[in-house]
Amino acid sequence: MEFKDRVAARMKALNLNATDISKLTDVSKATVSFWVNGTNGAKGKNLLALAKALECSPDWLSDGVGSPEVNSADQSKPGMSTADLVAQMLSSKAGRNLSEKARETMLAAAAEADTPSDPGQSYQPSNFASLRPTNEEIVIPQYDVRAAMGHGQVPPDYTEVVRNLVVREEILREKGVTYTSKTALAMINGWGQSMEGTINDKDLVIVDKGVQDFIGDGIYVLTWLHDLYIKRVMRLDEDHYRLISDNQHYENQTARIDDVTIHAKVLLIWNARKA
Predict the structure, then answer these.
(1) Are residues 104 and 166 both part of a single domain?
(2) Distance between CA atoms of 77 and 51, rounded to whole angstroms?
(3) CB contact set of 123 (below 8 Å; sequence gap of 6+)
């Protein structure tokens, strides 16, 4: 049984449709369609959210390990928090094989999912320990691009330049930057030349991971046909986006909305220029 078959089986057992899953997991319908048709699997925070929605073990859902039954002693139960699901998975055989960094990332994601309204209480991974922001500052972590991609393709020229950033919140306000929550802020480094003039290669970009659907013309981090892009997006009609490259030497593309998964919205570009 493949991942998509396990998803379909639980959806049938619980009488859930794709719209229900989208609402329960707080992801776009396009992402759900990728799960249902087997284009992409769910990973990280999305896997935990999907397992919770389908009332089954993340281990079983991801790898077919164990049983899907919610009344088994080692499976998840309705009403369990995301943190409970993470703790359960990390204590399993699959969880013990994870690296310490992966365990830290999953714990941080669980805390963010369980306490979105109180970001000040969210769990901070140990590699943030040396960062001591004041009440007026925000810690913005490096966006885990590979986790966001699922089974997609990370560009070969993608390089993580800055790991963590502490920024005064008033600076963001002064620049007119608004976001869904502090914990949704993350950093990503631009790559390649397709957005040159707006986002140059290795430029630091602050994004809002809380935006996973098209909310109007703007620049988004997205997956299209299994590849990762930063593109300016415009909606053409009910079924298509226009993916725009700001560098005029690159052709713009028309993409079916169902083929596009939005991971985040670009809020701010910090251009590093040699003095």
Answers:
(1) no
(2) 10
(3) 107, 108, 110, 111, 112
In whole angstroms, what is the distance from residue 97 CA to residue 52 CA?
22
pLDDT above 80: residue 234: yes
201 inside domain: yes
Report the largest interatomic distance among the alpha carbons of the chain, rounded to a whole angstrom: 63
Q: Does the pLDDT value for residue 241 go beyond 90?
A: yes
Q: How far apart are CA 70 and CA 130, in angstroms?
A: 40
* Overall pTM surpassing 0.70 (yes/no): no
Residue 136 identity (one-letter amino acid): E
Q: Which residues of 94-125 are buried (b: 16+ CB within 10 A; e: fewer)?
A: bbeeeeeeebbbbbbbbbbbbbbeebeebeeb
Among 159, 190, 187, smallest CA distance to 172 is for 187
Q: What average pLDDT is seen over the chain?
A: 78
State the total domains in the chain: 2
Pairwise CA distance, residues 59 & 131, whole Å: 33
Annotate 181-247 with DSSP letters as a single string: -GGGEEEEE--SSTTTTTS-TT-EEEEETT--S--SSEEEEEEETTEEEEEEEEE-SSSEEEEE-SS
| Cβ–Cβ under 8 Å, residues 14 and 54 | yes
Identify the CATH number of the domain in which residue 215 sits: 2.10.109.10
